[in-house]
Fold this protein.
Amino acid sequence: MSKNNIDIEKTLELEKARQQLENRVQGGMKSYLVSLELPDDDPVEIQESLVELGALIRTLGDECVGVTVQKKVKPIPATYIGLGKAEEIKKACELLKFDYVTFDQELSPTQVRNLENLIAKPILDRTGVILQIFRKNARSKEARTQVEIAHLEYIAPRLSNAWITWERQRGGGGSGGRLKGAGETQIEIDRRRMKDKIASLRKDLEKIQKERETQRKNRADEWNVVLVGYTNAGKTTLMNALTESHLSAKDSLFETLDSSIRRIRGVNNMNILVTDTVGFIRNLPHGLVASFRSTLEETSKADLLLHIVDITHKSYKDHIKVTDEVLVQVGASDVPRIIVFNKIDKVVGEPRLPKILARGYPRSICLSSYKEEDIKRFREMIVNFLAQNMVEEVFHVSYGDSKMLSLIYSHTRVLESNWTQDEGIFKVRMSKSIYQRYFAPVKSEEEQEWQVKSN
């Protein structure tokens, strides 16, 4: 067999493996993990991130059969890791029989293609793994649409040119021959189709978002509490306990992608809705944050955020930091929040831990989602917080006051709005801190007098 034919056979075999990895419906494959350690990196954080990557792989139903970390001054532009390390991984495949290689960092399309050619195995990066999990767990139309947009944007620049090699080998003159370069044209066609598909999906998502906004307006007279936190921190289990629901709460990363809304049970004279949201993770792909922005915007419209933290995890402080960073990205950094240290019942030998956490995090609570007395105490804390820390105000805004309109829509929940010939009248709800920061100086004496009379 000629060298050209051998190369074609290897290329097509690699393409078949890529397609199998991309389109599979269940796990059972083996992965080899790779990371790069740069001079400014913390080796402990590198190891923790690899452990988390392994958990992501297992969430797919796959097995981690090996791991390697290369120390370098900077990444290699063409291959990310060095050529010697790539050859080492290729040899490891003969011994460990893994199906694909997973990098803990995000790789460029060029780096993926070059590494696949060197190692002769499909390459996934951290973003690719998370996307596969999201595709596996997306159930509602909104979640499936959001994930599909992120997936298409991820794979568009990574379209394989494997079949271009095959077309070029068959190109040339003669009967039935094909023109050289047809492969490039086909990839351009495929990418254009993806672009059109993404545009169509975005239109679908806009319709879903409008429906969501209408539903939110219909719930304006109810208190809106949103659960946020690192993936697998126990948000859904806690929501089930608070609302006496039975949502799926498996011990698995990214089990919840859809926003579920339930009513808190056991409180009087207050209509409190609780919304569960997608969990966060370190290095959450920007494409996913962008695609799920409409869902995550529930956090910016909340009256109160419950930041759920798995206190049994040794990196819980990092998890708090990651969640805070994502909340900043989606415009929810100013929303009042309570930090909930969950799974306290699993902490052994640290009886003083709740007091230590209370000093470090004044607005917090330690609890177990499985203890009825803890849940009752937590419900009371939520009710008291909403009653004492939220205010309702009425503002009269002229048509030309764009600054005030922006403040209202950005920092409050609009309960009622009515436009007259001269102005807009807004009844809004916000936290006391937001009121003091943005609105107390601009409220006129006439409005204050009107507010007193209306009450």
